[in-house]
Structure formats: C-alpha cells, structure tokens
C-alpha cells in the first residue's frame, strides 16, 4: 500500500501562521524520510485557522527542501482561475522539479459567495463550466487543444516535454464521471464524505477513458488518521481534531484547540452526536488498529494509495503519528 500526505496547514491555538508554514516544510521533510509517496497542500481562503491559501507557492518551497517525494496541490480551485494560468504555473513547477509535481484540482467554490467574488475579481463563472475548464487545462498543459478551439494558437509556457499528472478531487458520482471521461486521476475525499465511496470509485473505474494524462484509472482515498502507541493516547490526541471539526462544521474559529481547552469544554448532546458522526471520517488508534482499518478500506475501495490528513494540536505528536503509520506498513 502507498501512503501519502494531505496538509491543510492547520494553525494550532497559540501558534502563528509563520510557524505553521515552517511546520509544513518540516513535516514534508519528515514524511519523505519515512517513505511517503506524495505531499499535497490544500487551498483555502478567508479562514483564520488554515495557512494554505497559496498551494503553488507552498509547493515551490516544499519541493525545494525535499528531494524525492512528489509535491502536489490538493487541490487548486479550478472554477476560480484561468486554466491557462494554472497550466503555466504547473509547467513552471514541473520544469524546476521534473517528475515530482502533481496537479490536483477541485470543483469547490472556495468559500462564501463574497470570498469567491474577491478571488475572481467579480468575474464569477458558473460551476457548470468545470468540465470545460478541466478539458482546457489538459489541453493547455499538453498542447492538445482541438483545432476548433478559440485558444488553439495560445501555448502555455515554458514549453517542456514532460508534464505533471492531473488529479480531480471529488466526493460524488458526478465528479467521478468527470474525471473518468477526461482520463485523469481521481481522489475520493473520505475525510469529508465517507458515504457511498465504494460506488463513487466504481463509477470512476467503469467510465474511465484513456487520455494524454493517463492510460488507466488511478485512485487515491484521503482520510483523517490519528495514531499513537496506545489507544488511550490516540483518543486523547484526537480530541483536538474532534473539536476542530466541530468548529469547522459550525463555521466557527478554525484554529486547532489544545487538549486542555477541549478537556475543559462541556459538550452538549447535539455536539457529542456530531463528534460521533465525524468519527466516520477518521481512523483513531494504535498502529495495529490503523493498519487493520486501512487494509479493510483498501479492500472496499479497491485502491492502493491512501492520503493521510492529521489535524491535531501537537505538532510533535502529528509527526509521531505519521511515523507509526509508516512503520506499521513496513515489510
């Protein structure tokens, strides 16, 4: 099984954005040493709790301090930007770091309507344009625009002969069909919506059409994981992620709270029910438990790669969680 990392650059309470971004560099170097395949950074806007607002810049810095791990976006918000500009950004990254760059894109609007308007300078495009934008992105990236396309004479630079693979992040059969019809990789967000994933991935594989990006279907499943030497310790660490997810769901403060802050909190029955529901998006436990549950999901989803996201308060405990997971899968 392949293991990878998704980093949203979550800011822990008491930590600055600058410290958080430095932690992303350290975590990328650490997980590279542990043998993780990819390190992807998310794109989030207008939030005080996530420092990952510019994945391309983060990717440049991360790739410059690592040597072998693939570095990607998880993912660029394609509806908000020009496919041409994204193609040029990622061709430039690919030129600097050959065969190490992944181009993950998502259909998310990127936040509130006001935030989206600010991102697009009030030039909002309907989300129904997404399949066309994805096709244009692939055309600009590989210089394969159809002869009848209005931008067929516009070439994305630098004009290199190796290209980053495109991955579509999705949750639904609609997203799976879009990825399949255009022959790009598909990343299922179990960490957002753990329901119906088996059918979503089946839909992708059943409808896949080879393309310049890939000649066969490729899948990754992204999931929250918190791992520690004992189940009790893992549960304690996961409390901070539980409270963070609760806050995110309410649209509240999105900085990751400390363990002490969570222990001092009295949760309502409604909040406890929400936490229980959110745990369906997570695996929490010892290395043995984590391995067992990931192998079970691997069989269910028929995938050979999991992307791990761990949004807990203690950075050293986060590093240890990734170490224990990697060790559990060593031969």
UniProtKB/TrEMBL annotation:
Please indicate which superkingdom the organism of origin belongs to.
Answer: Bacteria
Which Gene Ontology terms of cellular component type are present? cytosol
Q: Which SUPFAM superfamilies match?
A: Bacterial luciferase-like (SSF51679)
Which residue intervals make up region (Disordered)? Answer: 1-20
Under Gene Ontology molecular function, one entry of this record is: oxidoreductase activity, acting on paired donors, with incorporation or reduction of molecular oxygen
The record's similarity note reads: To bacterial alkanal monooxygenase alpha and beta chains.
**Protein known as:** Luciferase family oxidoreductase, group 1
Q: Which organism is it from?
A: Gracilibacillus kekensis
């Amino acid at each position: 099984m392949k293991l990878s990392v998704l980093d949203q650059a979550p800011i822990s309470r008491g930590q600055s954005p600058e410290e958080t971004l430095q932690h992303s560099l350290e975590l990328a170097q650490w997980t590279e040493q542990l043998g993780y395949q990819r390190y992807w950074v998310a794109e989030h806007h207008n939030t005080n709790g996530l420092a990952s607002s510019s994945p391309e810049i983060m990717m440049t810095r991360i790739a410059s301090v690592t040597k072998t791990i693939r570095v990607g976006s998880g993912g660029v918000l394609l509806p908000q930007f020009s496919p041409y500009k994204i193609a040029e950004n990622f061709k430039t990254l690919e030129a600097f770091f050959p065969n190490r760059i992944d181009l993950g894109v998502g259909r998310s609007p990127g936040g509130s309507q006001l935030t989206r308007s600010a991102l697009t300078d009030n030039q909002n495009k309907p989300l129904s344009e997404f399949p066309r934008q994805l096709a244009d992105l692939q055309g600009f990236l590989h210089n394969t625009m159809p002869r009848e396309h209005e931008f067929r004479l516009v070439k994305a630079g630098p004009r290199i002969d190796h290209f980053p693979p495109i991955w579509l992040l999705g949750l639904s059969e609609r997203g799976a069909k879009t990825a399949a019809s255009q022959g790009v990789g598909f990343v299922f967000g179990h960490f957002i919506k753990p329901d119906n994933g088996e059918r979503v991935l089946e839909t992708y594989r059943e409808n896949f059409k080879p393309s310049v990006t890939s000649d066969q279907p490729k899948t990754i499943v992204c999931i929250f994981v918190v791992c520690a030497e004992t189940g009790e310790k893992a549960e304690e660490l996961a409390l901070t992620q539980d409270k963070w997810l609760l806050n995110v769901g309410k649209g509240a403060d999105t900085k990751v709270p400390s363990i002490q802050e969570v222990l001092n909190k009295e949760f309502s029955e409604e909040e406890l029910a929400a936490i229980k529901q959110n745990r369906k998006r997570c695996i929490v436990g010892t290395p043995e438990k984590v391995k067992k549950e990931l192998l079970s999901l691997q069989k269910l989803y028929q995938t050979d790669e999991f992307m791990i996201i761990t949004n807990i308060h203690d950075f050293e405990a986060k590093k240890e969680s990734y170490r224990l997971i990697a060790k559990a899968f060593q031969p």
